Each structure stands twice: as C-alpha cells, then as structure tokens.
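User: Reviewer 2 asked us to show a designed sequence for the structure in our supplementary figure. I'm pasting the structure tokens here. Could you produce the per-position amino acids so we can include them in the response letter?
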C-alpha cells in the first residue's frame, strides 16, 4: 500500500538530512520572452474518463507551445511510456519524451518515479481557435496503466499583443534527492517603479507527482539565508489521496499568496507562488534553492512567469522582445516537493 511504503521511505530518509546541493535535474524545455502569458492545470484519477483539465486562452491569443505531461510511479518495478487519450487523441509509445525515470531511495530498489512529456501544440491550437473569454475544459479520456499514472498536466504558453512583456519558462525533468539551485538573471536591474507597479508579477509553479503532503515535504528558499518560500510543496490537489491520482500543479484556481506560514510543512500550499516579496530595487538576479529530506515524490515540472526580461541560468541579457526560445541544457534547481492540501479543481 502507498502509505505503508511512504512511512518506510520517510524513516530511511532521516539518514540524508543536511545533504548538500547537487547538479540540477530540471532543464528548460521552452522559454518565451515577449507579450504573452501562460495557462497551467492538472488532473488525476483512476476513473475512465480521468477528468477535466482546463485552459485559459484569451480571445486574440496565439498558442506558442503546449505540453502534456504524464507523471508516473511504480513501487514494484520500472516505468515505460504511458498511453494517454487527451480530448479524443491518443498519445502513446514514441509520442512521449521521457524526462528521466529514477530510484529516489537506494534502500528501495524497486521504487521508481518518472514523468513523460508530449508536444500537443497543434492539437491545443486547433481546439482553442481564436481563444475564448471563458475557460476551455478538455477531457483526459483514458490512461494506461492507470494505476501507475499519477495524472496529467497541461502547460500552455501563448502570445497576446495586449499582454505585458514577460519571461515565461517551462522546465521539466525529475527531482534531485540532495537538492538544487537555479538563478534568474535580469536583462537590467529591477527598479522601484517596476516593483511598485500593481501589475508586476513574478510567479513560480511546481508540478509534483506521487505526493501526499504532510511530514513528507520539500522546502523552497529564495537567495538562501533563511528566505523561506515554502516548507510544504506537494500534495494531491489536482487528484486524490489514492494510488494513481497523486498529482498537484500550481495553476488555474490556485492562490499564489499561500502558504501563510512558510515554515510549516502542514500549511495550505497550492504549488503556485508569488516571488514578489523576495525581489528588491537594484536586483540583477535571484536564486531559487530547494531541499528534500524524505527521498520520495517527484517534481517533474517547474514554471517561471516574470513581467521583466530575463534568462534562466544564463548570463544577463535577453533576445529581442517577442522572440520565442527553446533552450537546451539550461537548468532550474530541482524544486523538491511535499506538504500541501486539497484544493478545489477548476
């Protein structure tokens, strides 16, 4: 059973508390700098159909990139590419890119976590047409093997001339058990005027699989030195507390202002975070650092949304406004997980 396994893993994890930061395991899959925004939502379940995943694509928007992620777990063996039917289209086998299957705890050699990504840009662009003033609601019709699939995340970047200039980045891969870091470099120092603008935005989204929350939690710090963002990353907010439905992602319907208590691993946490309080005038860059003591769960996705020109783990300076970039080899710290609560699905 899932919870028996997690208890044993938590006990073994006490041996690694205080491990040092290691090489990042999430890489930038796609980055956009220009007038636009994102839409992120997730769903998990063991029923057929699995459930509904929503998308916010405004009128006049053009879909630049859309990824469908499938998070997987197996407590008794290895993983292979899933079969997922999304809004009537089946994705299986070679349609998926593996983001890395790994064993988070050497004490449990048959315990595997991993995730897969497929590009659904053409399908989503066709479904969205010219956009809508209301949410799109699309169905994940089926998963196979459903017992090993935590759920799906739909992550979309769109351009829209009326939007602010943003740096939008999707990163994916798998969690590093010993912790990671990443740096966001601004094209020019932040100004007091930017930060005072009520429309200024700096957000972080995490997608996490095989997570129940509570004592098995991850922490996220900004620029080290005790600037704690959360101690409760994780949960099953977009699914349910049962095998085959343990998934959460920060996005539609979530509150970026929580957790109210960043030092509690039982605080309400939607995996969508505002970074604004950690930024200051004159800042050229900032870092995100994560640590995880429990050797469980998998952060397979991270998103950054900042209304400023920037690069992720790259020297300062950005490409021309409006360009769309895919950077290979740029890394975000594996923002490690756990904690959390249920939230109402959009």
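Assistant: Here is a per-position design you can include in the supplement:
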């Amino acid at each position: 059973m899932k919870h028996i396994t997690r208890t044993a893993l938590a006990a073994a994890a006490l041996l690694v508390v205080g491990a040092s930061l290691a090489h990042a395991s999430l890489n930038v899959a796609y980055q956009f700098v220009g007038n636009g925004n994102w839409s992120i939502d997730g769903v998990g379940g063991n029923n057929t159909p699995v459930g509904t995943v929503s998308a916010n694509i405004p009128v006049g928007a053009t879909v630049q990139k859309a990824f469908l992620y499938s998070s997987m777990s197996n407590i008794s063996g290895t993983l292979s590419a899933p079969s997922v039917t999304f809004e009537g289209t089946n994705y299986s086998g070679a349609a998926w890119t593996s983001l890395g299957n790994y064993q988070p705890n050497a004490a449990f050699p048959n315990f595997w976590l991993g995730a897969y990504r497929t590009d659904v840009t053409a399908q989503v662009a066709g479904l969205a047409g010219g956009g809508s003033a209301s949410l799109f609601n699309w169905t994940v019709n089926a998963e196979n093997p459903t017992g090993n699939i935590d759920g799906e995340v739909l992550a979309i970047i769109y351009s829209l001339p009326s939007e602010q200039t943003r740096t939008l980045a999707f990163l994916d891969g798998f969690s590093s058990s010993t912790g990671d870091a990443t740096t966001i470099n601004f094209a020019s120092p932040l100004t007091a005027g930017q930060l005072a603008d009520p429309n200024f935005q700096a957000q972080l989204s995490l997608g996490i699989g095989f997570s129940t929350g509570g004592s098995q939690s991850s922490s996220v710090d900004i620029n080290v030195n005790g600037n704690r963002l959360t101690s409760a990353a994780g949960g099953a907010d977009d699914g349910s507390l049962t095998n085959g439905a343990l998934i959460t992602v920060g996005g539609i319907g979530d509150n970026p202002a929580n957790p109210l208590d960043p030092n509690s691993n039982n605080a309400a946490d939607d995996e969508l975070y505002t970074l604004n309080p950690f930024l200051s005038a004159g800042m050229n860059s900032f870092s995100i650092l994560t640590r995880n003591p429990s050797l469980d769960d998998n952060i397979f996705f991270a998103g950054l949304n900042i209304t400023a020109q920037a690069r992720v783990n790259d020297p300062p300076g950005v490409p021309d406004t409006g360009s769309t970039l895919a950077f290979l080899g740029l890394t975000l710290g594996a923002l490690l997980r756990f904690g959390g609560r249920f939230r109402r699905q959009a």
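For the response letter, you might also mention the following. The first helix runs from residue 2 to 13. The mean pLDDT is 83.
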